[in-house]
UniProtKB/TrEMBL annotation, chain A:
Keywords: Amino-acid transport, ATP-binding, Nucleotide-binding, Transport. One of its GO terms (biological process) is L-amino acid transport. GO terms for molecular function: ATP binding; ATP hydrolysis activity; branched-chain amino acid transmembrane transporter activity. This is ABC transporter ATP-binding protein. CDD domains: ABC_TM1139_LivF_branched. The lineage of its organism: Bacteria, Bacillati, Actinomycetota, Actinomycetes, Micromonosporales. Belongs to the ABC transporter superfamily. Pfam families: ABC_tran. It comes from the Bacteria. It comes from Rhizocola hellebori.
TrEMBL record, chain B:
GO terms for molecular function: transmembrane transporter activity. This is Branched-chain amino acid ABC transporter permease. Belongs to the binding-protein-dependent transport system permease family. LivHM subfamily. The lineage of its organism: Bacteria, Bacillati, Actinomycetota, Actinomycetes, Micromonosporales. InterPro entries: ABC_transp_permease, BCAA_transport_permease.
Length: 221, 286
């Protein structure tokens, strides 16, 4: 479904990614681990077209090279950013109505899955709690009908109960055939939802598993 | 007193229309359009070129024409500097101001040109306690309708939803499938058209001369800073408030100079108290 090959990216002189590659199949949750500053967010931004990078990214066989972020979103990439992507000038209902593609979950499904969002549909998005903002970011991607979710640390700063809820939502998405590329530091959470694991270190990506002693040592788990 | 407040609201109308355009452009493009004052001046000269009975036509034709000119300028020059330091666009629009001013000076000279009160708006309107000149009432009504229209457009329509989202977080909006680039040129043109409309409305009331925009734009910048950079509501509210403050201080302190200084004192006080302006918000992460 999502295939990344030979992806390289830099910030000025500093090379962040060097020939990175990974694949995520339909209905698969792939977790990308790595230390802070390893380039995990950069990799997601390159896939979304928000950061320049060389190499090949394809979605369902469609080469995404040269395509702008809005085109990539319309082709099926769902962006769930690490800052939760809340708008100060848009209500919850408006945030859900913003994407031009709304072929995924219906509003009824969204509000049934996220009752807090229904209760606060008239509130400005930035007035929501951190957990509610995270739910809104996930709900927006699911409403868009995204086929691949790019989730950047969705559990960061959330209470254990909300972490569990995020896990439930990702599992539900997975059952519907949605692929998830999950950047996650919380390896315990990742172990609950992920099918495959990748470690990003020194700009390179290698496949691994949570049982991998080196990975646990590397992440300090 | 009531008369001075009314005159202040009329003066604030011009500030509001120009500030509204400036705020919309800054919000979406992060471009401080210094040429906005020159566009206001071109609006007044556009009305002058179509003088007399053609005022009503000028009210439509001139803003639309200037809006189209704005779109061409955005596509050809402003857009090219979009990814650079905002200072480059500031210098570019400052340069454009000088070019436009000199072109008008070359064609019309530096002296003020008179503009007659439009037919049908020459009398006064009786409000019971006071009579107000009909044209001034007309300006206030037009400004109020335009400000309400822009508010309605931005807060109650899908187009407004997209413009608000792109204005606040263009990168995130693009990642959500919104074609941000498609809206940049029309928004720039719309902002320019508002300044052109203010210029047409100003022609019968203000001295029409090549530097009239340069005089106004500095006050408008102060208004936009007081209201909050990028805040549409803040810019309009601050424009009317500053208009009234100027009219009252001119009337009771009997000094145009003190009146001008007061605007900047208010701006400095607001910046010290709330650096993002009265209705502005802290920059969100991109």
């Amino acid at each position: 479904m999502l295939h990344i090959e030979e992806l390289s990216a830099s910030y000025g002189e500093a090379k962040v990614l060097t020939s990175a590659g990974l694949s995520v199949a339909q209905g698969e949750v792939a977790t990308l681990c790595g230390r802070n500053g390893a380039g995990k967010t950069t990799l997601l931004r390159c896939v979304m077209g928000l950061h320049p990078g060389s190499g090949k990214v394809s979605l369902n066989g469609t080469d995404l090279r040269g395509r702008k972020p809005f085109e990539r979103a319309r082709l099926g990439l769902g962006w769930v950013p690490d800052d939760r992507g809340a708008y100060a000038t848009l209500t919850v209902a408006e945030s859900l109505a913003l994407p031009p593609m709304r072929s995924g979950w219906s509003l009824e499904q969204i509000y049934e899955a996220f009752p807090n969002l229904y209760a606060r549909r008239g509130s400005m998005s930035t007035k929501l709690s951190g957990g509610e903002q995270q739910m809104l970011a996930l709900a927006r991607a699911l409403r868009m009908g995204s086929r691949v979710l790019l989730c950047d640390e969705p559990t960061e700063g959330l209470s254990p109960l909300l972490v569990q809820r995020v896990g439930e939502i990702l599992r539900q998405a997975k059952q519907q055939g949605i692929a998830v590329l999950l950047v996650e530091q919380n390896l315990h959470f990742a172990a609950e939802v992920a099918d495959s694991y990748y470690l990003l270190a020194s700009g390179r990506v290698q496949q691994t598993s949570p049982a991998d002693k080196d990975l646990l040592t590397y992440l300090g788990v | 007193m009531l008369q001075h407040v009314f005159n202040g609201l009329v003066g604030g109308s011009f500030l509001a229309l120009v500030a509204l355009g400036l705020a919309v452009i800054f919000g979406m493009l992060r471009v401080v359009n210094f040429a906005h004052g020159a566009i206001y001046m071109l609006g007044a000269f556009g009305a002058l070129a179509l003088t007399g009975e053609a005022f009503w036509a000028a009210l439509v034709v001139v803003p639309v024409g200037l809006g189209l000119l704005g779109m061409v300028l955005e596509r050809t020059v402003v857009n090219r500097l979009a990814r650079l330091d905002p200072l480059y666009n500031f210098l570019l629009t400052f340069g454009l101001t000088l070019v436009l001013q000199d072109l008008v000076k070359w064609r019309y000279g530096v002296q003020s040109s008179p503009y007659p009160t439009p037919a049908g708006l020459g009398g006064s309107v009786d409000f019971g306690l006071f009579d107000f000149p009909a044209y001034r009432v007309f300006v206030l009504v037009v400004a109020a309708i335009v400000c309400f229209g822009v508010w309605f457009l931005l807060s109650r329509t899908r187009l407004g939803l997209i413009v608000r989202a792109c204005t606040e977080r263009p990168e995130l909006s693009a990642a959500l499938g919104v074609n941000v680039g498609r809206w940049v040129t029309p928004v720039f043109g719309f902002g320019v058209a508002l300044a052109g409309l203010a210029g047409v409305l100003a022609a019968p009331m203000r001295a029409v001369h090549p530097l009239m925009g340069a005089d106004l734009i500095i006050v408008v910048f102060a208004v936009v800073v007081i209201g909050g950079l990028g805040s549409i509501f803040g810019s309009v509210a601050a424009a009317f408030a500053i208009g009234v403050l100027q009219a009252l201080s001119e009337a009771y302190l009997d000094s145009a100079l003190v009146s001008q200084i007061l605007v900047y004192v208010v701006m400095a006080a607001v910046l010290l108290w709330r650096p993002s302006g009265l209705f502005g918000r802290e920059e969100s992460p991109a």
